[in-house]
Amino acid sequence: MIRGFLSDVLAKWKRFRWQGLVKVWAVFMAIALVLLVESLGVHYGATRFDITYLDRNKAIPAANAIAGEKATNLLVVDSSQEGVSDAEAMLDQILLDMKVPTTVVDVADENAEFPALTHYSTIVVAMPNLDRLGEHVLQIMQWAKKGGGVMFAMTPEKTGYLDVIGPQIGIESSAYEYVVTKGITPSKDFMLGGGQTYTFSDPFESSLSVALHDRAQVKAVSSNGRTPLIWSTFVNSGSAVVCNIGIYGKVLRGFYASAFSLLGSATAYPVINSAAFYLDDFPSPVPSGNGKYIKRDYNMSIAEFYSQVWWPDLVRLAERYGIRFTGVMIENYGDDTKDDPVRQTDGAQFEYYGGLLLRQNGEIGYHGYNHQPLVLPNTDYGKEYAYVQWPNRQAIVDSLNELIAFQKDVLPAATSSVYVPPSNILSEEGRKIIGEDVSQIRAIASTYMPSDSSLTYVQEFGVAADGVVEAPRIVSGGMVGDMYMRLAAVSELNMHYVSTHFMHPDDLLDEDRGAKEGWKKYYQGLENYLDWLESSAPSIRMRTGTECAAAIQRFSGLTVSMETSDDSWDLKLGNLTDQGWLMFRANNGTPGRVRGGSLTKLTGNLYLLKATNATVHIERKTGGAA
User: Fold this and answer.
1) Which of 21, 321, 379, 614 has the most CB within a 10 Å radius?
2) Phi and psi of 222, rounded to 5°?
3) C-alpha gyration radius of the chain
């Protein structure tokens, strides 16, 4: 009976004149079903943040946090000597971020009165020619013998006073010659990332040729192993540290901070403890057509490469290393800045890629309504960029409000707060507009390292006076063969215990960003960096842009003072909210039990302190290295 029914149906189907249309309809339905299943598979909700922003009025700029505190450190400079201004600027920021209240005395100022040394527990000397200090050099060394800690931060010149105090600060002999220092190798138990060599980009004769006596503890040497660059030594009851690097740029701050932490029986300073990874221009309109090198390597269109290779590879990295990407959205790539913003009509790719990002518990931030930086007509791009200026303040505000509204329309579950300036360009006026008129933007993530361009918005980690968090990115791309970025990365692990990285989906379309080498090599470079980061800082917290910014808020306001006894270190923390993070180096003694927090050993005598109470008691056991 059933067989007869089927035969009847088949006969009628053969006589049906619209068979072709039905087949076409069936194919379309199958495609629609596949797309439906795929879209239903992109389940996501709001990003689950492990740390959230403090109220704006509770976020404190670092300078405000330590204002009025009694200075514990004396910075001695001689502004008349070459290079001192660079070293002083670097040290000022280091000491501010380490929350070391400091008094500065300039011996070039004839009206300056040299202060009483008994007021301070540490002294930093920033001048190459110590003869300018005269008898004060001997006073400083006598003070150190009684328990003080002195750091000579600049490569010294061979002078009479250096010869006099040389044996006390570890120097057995010195020459008049300076040697080329091509890189630095910190010892494995001194710094995070130690035991490896980090190359300088523009080496020169920056280090004094010295031989040290056997009581000096060498912490870092030149890349060829011949020249000591950082060392410490006992001075009776006190200590001395010498930096023989001779380079005073932002890229080396972590080395000088680590050197300073060798002073005293222990040193504690606030850090951020966050690693964030940004995807610029993601989600954004996917370029149509083919990319030269993508076609060469994968025989795919750009859109196919993004969806079938690039994103799946990033997901694998995220799963392996615990990364939670922060993508920053571009609504369109037009250059219209004069007319009212026009809503993007194709929201499907934003929904799809944005949904994938949120499903990974990542975050979506802001990059721009279009890719035009926030500058007004008074900014001259010259021949450097082909960007277009915005005609007035309101046009900038309208563009940001359109981006915010569009993002909420296509990804209603997204919670955004971080703005990344296109090409890291942000004018003074644009920056002011963000702080005054666009309250949804709580943080700006531009660039940390200096740039050859005067248009680049270069940041420090911290909270600005308007309450916006300054959360710069340090390194970028696959970093294949880029030793400068690896040097910056290791420096910032030790300065702020932070890693911030960014890349673009369209890096593989631009030869200057690695397109010719191909995605495979780019991916291997990124993987190599992540392996290095994981081995150098296994306890660092993988965070989104918002979480990193919230951690910066806590770091910015946190202050620390310490009292030392024979059996304990007692820390008092100012402006502690829910928790604070600090580097803790035990130079003389070994940490035992902790109340008010917990310690994680990082390397050697360096620990990461998680503080949960405004007072932290650390048991001090004897027997630790000084």
Assistant:
1) 379
2) -70, 165
3) 29
Phi, psi angle pair for 202, to nearest 5° = -130, 75
Contacts of 181 (CB under 8 A, 6+ apart): 200, 203, 206, 207, 222, 223, 227, 229, 245, 246, 247
Low-confidence ranges of the chain (pLDDT < 50): 2, 6, 9, 21-41, 624-626
- Asked if residue 545 lies in contact with residue 444, where contact means CB atoms within 8 angstroms, the answer is no
Distance CA 19, CA 503 (A): 51
In this predicted structure, what is the pLDDT of residue 40?
Answer: 43
- Please state the φ and ψ torsions of residue 246, each to the nearest 5 degrees: 80, 10
Cis bond before residue 591 (omega within 30° of 0):
no
CA nearest to 558, candidates 179, 65, 191, 51: 65
pLDDT of residue 38: 45
- Comparing CA positions, the residue from 122, 99, 441 lying closest to residue 263 is 122
Q: Is 126 helix (H, G, I), strand (E, B) or coil?
A: strand
Instruction: Output the pLDDT for position 43.
Output: 67
pLDDT the model gives residue 45: 86
pLDDT at 517: 92
* Residue 404 three-state SS: helix
Do 128 and 98 touch, CB atoms closer than 8 A? no
pLDDT value for 16: 54
Question: What's the token pair of residue 470?
Answer: 């300054």
* Cβ atoms < 10 Å from Cβ of 289: 8
* Tokens read off for 357: 């990002």
pLDDT tens per residue, range 10-60: 565 556 555 554 444 443 443 333 344 344 445 688 999 999 999 999 999
- The one-letter amino acid code at 525 reads G
Burial class for 83, CB neighbours closer than 10 Å (0-12, 13-18, 19+): middle
Backbone angles phi, psi at 605, to 5 degrees: -100, 20
Q: Nearest Cα to 485, choosing from 520, 549, 528, 454?
A: 528
Which tokens in the block code for residue 244? 């023989």
322 Ramachandran zone, left/alpha/beta (phi>0; psi -120 to 50): left
Alpha helices in 117-252 (DSSP H): 135-145, 160-165
Q: Which amino acid is at 119?
A: H
Distance of CA 434 to the CA centre of its chain: 22
Q: How far is CA 214 from the centre of its chain?
A: 37
Spatial neighbors of 384 by CB under 8 A, at least 6 apart, are: 453, 455
Report the DSSP pairing between strands 597-603 and 606-611: antiparallel
Decide: 580 and 600 in contact? Cβ < 8 Å. no
Question: If we measure between CA atoms, which residue out of 100, 99, 47 comes closest to residue 73?
Answer: 100
Instruction: Return the pLDDT at 37.
Output: 38
Pure H helices in 108-226: 135-145, 160-165
> How many residues are there in the chain?
626
Q: What is the DSSP code (8-state) at residue 306?
A: I
Cβ–Cβ < 8 Å for 310, 505: yes
- Quote the CA–CA distance of 568 and 594 in Å, as a whole number: 10
Who's near 97: CB < 8 A, 6+ residues apart?
62, 257, 269, 270, 460, 461, 462, 495, 496
* Cα distances (Å, whole numbers) of residue 364 to 123, 380, 504, 544, 569: 45, 31, 14, 9, 42
